[in-house]
Write a structure and sequence with these properties.
- This protein is of the alpha+beta class.
- It contains 33 helices and 44 strands.
- Helix 20 (723-736) packs across helix 25 (803-815), helix 23 (776-794) crosses helix 26 (823-833) and helix 32 (961-969) crosses helix 33.
- The longest helix is centred in the N-terminal third of the chain and has 22 residues, at 2-23.
- The protein binds zinc ion (ZN).
- The site of zinc ion (ZN) has 8 residues, from helix 7.
- Zinc ion binds at residues 272, 274-275, 277, 291-292, 294-295.
Length: 1081
């Protein structure tokens, strides 16, 4: 009874609201003309559901207010799908009055009685349902769509990033209105203006695939089955521009259902391509097969990205598409798709639906039965073959290439026709164009098909582990396993005959594949697989080719296609978390010094020796790589694959006294250490008497040498070094580097014998031959060095260093000998004398270089300056306290220290701190009320990148600096021991504070189990720890004097008795960590 009443009331209300609208028609129409557009259909679709591109999630009648504060509600048919919310004049209309991209809806919320509003960036839409229940239902549905936006990852036309074919204003006739028009992906979208386009609110969209185009001299029309849209255009060029774009999208549809008759005129098209059932009512238009009803269902299960299934009665059939199916036909196409079907796996009329799905998945998604194209695996050759094939009428070849891995978007290398599609159009191969177009829409298939490699055979395996395998595994630790890789799963069995497997790894779960150097374990050749669950698998074999086959297959299965050229030839590959990558993931392949990085869509090739920065962010545990033209911040995820990455990257990035090729290099490929020394001497030492002959101060030389060996790229040779210190460092480096410039003692003899040649031309030619046999880095180093020595001797009247003198100094140095053989000096002398001839340098050029010394010096210093700051990041920093919107944006280069940042911020705000006041940069963790003063020499960027959303950087006065300095001033030995209240927090498990004995000395922090200090529980070096002032509020500590120690994954809260104790512990810790050097003097 009550229900009935309710319905009755609702009906009455509806009736009233309608009648109110009628009364107000005049006024209402005025508004409508102003605010919304009517695009009524002349004919309504018979099957409206066929028009829908995205499934409708909810539809129904709602009242809607007109915009601009109008109060009158209008009845509208509202329809919501995963991309848009649209409303229509009524439930029959095809073209909406308004469509709102769900990407642009910020909020949906209930307001007042039965109403809810959608808030977009630019406008708010107010709707009214008939009941509160209906209203709640709408709000929930819209909210669900909003929530799933991220997961779907799709983008609407309104997103600024999406590619549109054409856009601009057009004058629409009937109704006469200016519309901002956008063509994209076979659809025309209409907007009132560009602002609406950008803010995600449109009028309607028109599907061009069911439309035809009519051009006249000053206008054009898009004719759909339901209505005609006509547009006036100014000028011939403008009309052409629009019509060219449109004509690529529209197609005159074949008007009748003659499709079946024509398709079936090819005999093999009458039986299903998959199960041979008679009667094919369906087609997969990208896979080019005709299907029975049941197989079509299975195809649909794979999704439209794999198989695009359409009915032969559908409206999509164009003349071109028909021709594709007439030219190919099921039997021809199956010669490709079903070339190797084992008898037991084939389908028959009676096959179950699960068997169908399995077979179809193998056949098309994995390409298991495909006929291999002879170019498979050779990406470039496949692409070239595709470019050739699309210009011919050989559709079968194009199909085979496309599904063997040829890139449908590859570059043809011809500027006018850059892609296969453009080539096909140019050659008027309309069927090829059709085939390619269906491929552009289903490129996922290509990548999935090509990445499905299968492999099987015996390997030796060690029990998997959840930490990196660093220890040697003996042969006895390995057991033989039959391994098989197919359809995205790597499985292993006790024997080939066993059917129940011992274990398996999803290839999508493999995050890293790494190779060990031969002989690392009991089996000569081994590799490791790391999974996203944090497990490590070690496999081995004595046969290198077995290992190569396996790793190639795994690489192909794991890597995204953009990196598929790697083919298992690298040392280590996998994915890592990094902010710059696609959804936070970057793919990395390391081979030798070469690192290939796939971030977003492009692959960058980096020579790690030429990195500008490689800084390990302590605490956060990530690493930052900066190179010419880019940088990436890789975050540690505390899984076992990460430490291996870090050490491999560091090793490949060069350092120490390894060979010249293993050094950190400049862009031109000389070791940075050598280049920095030469630059310094060129700027300050060319006129210095006895340069390279005089020795510098040994202590300073050692300091400089050590810093070069540790990390050359971070060394900036400052003024504190005398030119002789630097000259000596260069010599010491050349003497220490493994194998020397001449690449080993075994080559020395050949170089020394060159001095015996008397004929100058023969001598030069011999030196050139010897040079060409050197590694690139050695050759480049010699060239740079000899150019430099040539410049030095050119000023010998000032610096007294003649060619002879330089020979005496550099001969034994470069040959790494004691100087007893005078020929070493002769080689250097002769190479300086014949520098131009040997290195093919024009004498005129060299003279110019010498003449313009001053200019060059100037330029060098400029270059130097630019090299020092390879990349900048804009950091938000607060001054004194965090106020919303009060952040200062500071450009921070990779080498900027906390002290430099503080100075910059103070200068920006014109603040000059009073004498004796220390200002510092602080890392503040708002949520937990923790703060840490950055050491003044600490690099800012790594800290900045490690900040969580609830943290920020702050510049303010250092509150304890005076107390800490005072505390340390009279300490002879810096150490501290005593009782502290300690609380360990692991994850969310809080514990209580307990009294413990703690010790800080010898750069170590020790935590004892008890008060007596008898048993050490934990011990860290101070370098492993970060010290924060404060602790989590909710811990309810005993005193307010708290400190927090961060180790890699754990946090320890300690609580001091009073403020003096707090200062004492802090002072001791910081002093030990920074060797007493706490603040800039
Ligand atoms: Zn079938």
């Amino acid at each position: 009874m009550a229900r009935k009443e309710e319905v009755g009331r609702a009906n009455l209300k509806t009736f009233r609201s309608l009648s109110v609208e009628e009364e107000q028609t005049q006024h209402f129409l005025m508004r409508e003309r102003e605010e919304s557009i009517d695009l009524p259909c002349l004919k309504f679709p018979d099957h409206p559901e066929e028009l829908i591109t995205h499934p409708v999630i909810k539809s129904g009648w709602l009242d809607k207010t007109p915009p601009k504060g109008g109060r009158r509600f209008q009845k509208r048919w509202v329809q919501l799908d995963s991309e848009y919310l649209r409303y229509f004049q009524n439930n029959k209309e095809v073209y909406s009055k308004r469509m709102v991209s769900v990407w642009c809806i910020n909020t949906v919320q209930s307001v007042g009685d039965q109403r809810f509003e959608l808030i977009t960036q630019s406008r708010t839409f107010l709707f009214r349902a008939e009941t509160n229940e209906q209203r709640a239902d709408w709000v929930v549905c819209v909210q669900k769509v909003l929530d799933s936006r991220q997961q779907n990852g799709g983008r609407s036309v309104f997103s600024k990033r999406s590619v549109v074919s054409n856009e601009g204003f057009l004058d629409m006739m009937s109704p006469r209105i200016k519309v901002y028009t956008v063509i994209k992906d076979h659809r025309v979208y209409l907007f009132k203006n560009r602002q609406e386009y950008l803010s995600g609110v449109g009028i309607t969209d028109i599907d061009l695939r069911k439309a035809s185009l009519k051009e006249s001299s000053r206008s054009f029309s898009i004719i759909t089955p339901y209505r005609t849209f006509s547009f006036l255009v100014e000028g011939e060029a403008e009309r052409r521009r629009w019509c060219v774009c449109l004509s690529q999208c529209v197609s005159c549809t074949v008007p009748t259902v003659r499709v079946c008759d024509r398709v079936w005129s090819v005999e093999s098209n009458r039986v299903c391509a998959d199960c041979s059932t008679e009667g094919t009512g369906w087609a997969s238009i990208n896979l080019c097969v005709l299907l029975c009803e049941q197989c079509a269902d299975a195809h649909r299960c794979l999704g439209p990205s794999v198989s695009k299934v359409v009915s032969l009665n559908g409206q999509l059939w164009t003349e071109e598409l028909l021709k594709v199916f007439l030219l190919l036909g099921n039997s021809k196409v199956n010669e490709f798709w079903a070339a190797n079907v084992p008898d037991a796996e084939g389908l028959s009329v009676n096959s179950s639906s699960s068997k169908r799905l399995k077979f179809i998945t193998y056949k098309y998604l994995h390409g298991t039965y495909r006929k291999q194209h002879h170019l498979t695996g050779q990406q470039e050759a496949l692409n070239n073959a595709l470019c050739a094939a699309v210009q011919s009428d050989d559709l079968m070849e194009s199909l085979s290439l496309l599904f063997s891995g040829a890139d449908v978007n590859c570059s043809s290398g011809i500027p006018q026709f850059p892609s296969p599609l453009a080539l096909a159009k140019h050659s008027r191969q309309t069927e090829q164009v059709e085939l390619l177009q269906h491929h552009l829409r289903s490129d996922v298939v290509v990548s999935e098909v090509t990445s499905a490699r299968s492999q099987s055979g015996y390997l030796f395996k060690v029990a998997s582990s959840n930490r990196p395998i660093t220890e040697h595994k003996a042969r006895a630790d390995f057991s033989q396993r039959w391994c098989s890789l197919s359809t995205g799963v790597f499985s292993y069995y006790k024997t080939e005959q066993m059917t129940s497997r011992c274990g398996s790894i999803r290839t999508s779960g493999i995050i890293c594949l790494s190779f060990n150097s031969p002989g690392s374990h009991g089996y000569e050749h081994t590799f490791q697989l790391y999974t996203d669950e944090g497990r490590v698998y070690l496999f081995g074999s004595d046969d290198i080719s077995t290992i190569k086959e396996w790793t190639r297959a795994i690489t192909m299965a794991v890597l995204p296609p953009a990196l598929s050229s790697v083919c298992g030839l690298c040392d280590r590959l996998g994915r890592l978390h990094c902010a710059e990558g696609n959804s936070g993931v970057g793919w990395f392949c390391l081979s030798g010094y070469k690192l290939q990085v796939l971030l977003r869509d492009n692959v960058q090739n980096i020579d790690l020796r030429k990195l500008h920065t490689l800084s390990v962010c302590d605490g956060a545990g990530g690493v930052m790589l900066g190179w010419r033209g880019g940088c990436v911040h890789v975050c540690s995820d505390h899984r076992p694959h990460f430490p291996g990455w870090l050490s491999s990257l560091q090793r490949a990035a060069g350092s120490g006294t390894e060979t010249l090729s293993q050094q950190q290099l400049t862009e031109s490929g000389t070791p940075i250490s050598i280049q920095r020394c030469i630059d310094h001497i060129t700027r300050h030492g060319l006129m210095s008497v006895g340069i390279y002959r005089k020795s510098g101060a040994n202590s300073r030389v050692s300091v400089l040498m050590d810093s070069f060996l540790r990390d050359a790229r971070s060394v900036c040779v400052s003024e504190e070094f005398e030119v002789d210190d630097v000259a000596n460092t260069l010599k010491r480096f050349l003497r220490a580097v493994r194998h020397g410039v001449f690449n080993g003692a075994e080559n020395t003899h050949r170089w020394l014998s060159a001095t015996d040649l008397t004929d100058r031309r023969a001598k030069i030619s011999q030196y050139q031959t010897l040079l060409s046999s050197l590694p690139d880095v050695n050759r480049e180093t010699l060239k740079v060095l000899l150019n430099h020595l040539y410049c030095v001797q050119n000023l010998c009247e000032v610096n007294q260093m003649t060619t002879r003198n330089l020979g005496i100094v550099f001969g034994p140095t470069l040959f790494q000998t004691d100087g007893s053989d005078p020929r070493t000096s002769t080689v250097v002398e002769e190479m300086i004398q014949n520098y131009c001839a040997i290195f093919n340098v024009s004498e005129v050029e060299l003279q110019k270089q010498l003449d313009a010394t001053s200019l060059i010096l100037h330029k060098l210093s400029e270059q130097q300056a630019s090299v020092k700051q390879p990349s900048h990041t804009i950091c938000a920093v607060y001054l004194e306290r965090k106020d919303e919107g009060a952040d200062l944006l500071v450009q921070v280069g990779v080498s900027v220290t906390a002290a430099e940042l503080v100075l910059e911020v103070l200068q920006m705000r014109g603040i000059e701190p009073p004498a004796g006041e220390t200002w510092s940069c602080w890392e503040i963790q708002e949520k937990d009320d923790l703060e840490r003063e950055l050491h003044y020499q600490e690099k800012v960027l790594p800290v900045y990148f490690s900040l969580s959303p609830e943290s920020h950087l702050l510049v303010r006065k250092s509150n304890y600096s005076v107390d800490i300095k005072q505390y340390l001033s009279d300490k002879v030995e810096v150490c501290k021991a005593g009782a502290l209240q300690v609380c360990e927090v692991k994850g969310d498990k809080n514990r209580n504070f307990n009294s413990r004995h703690c010790e800080l000395n010898n750069a170590t922090f020790r935590l004892y189990r008890d008060m007596q200090g008898s048993q050490v529980e934990r011990e860290w070096t101070v370098q492993e720890l970060k010290l924060f002032h404060g602790y989590r509020r909710k811990l309810r500590p005993l005193t307010p004097w708290g400190l927090t120690l961060f180790s890699d994954q754990q946090q320890w809260y300690v609580c001091c008795e009073n403020e003096d104790e707090l200062i004492a512990w802090m002072a001791t810790f910081l002093s030990l960590k920074h060797g007493g050097n706490l603040w800039m003097e």
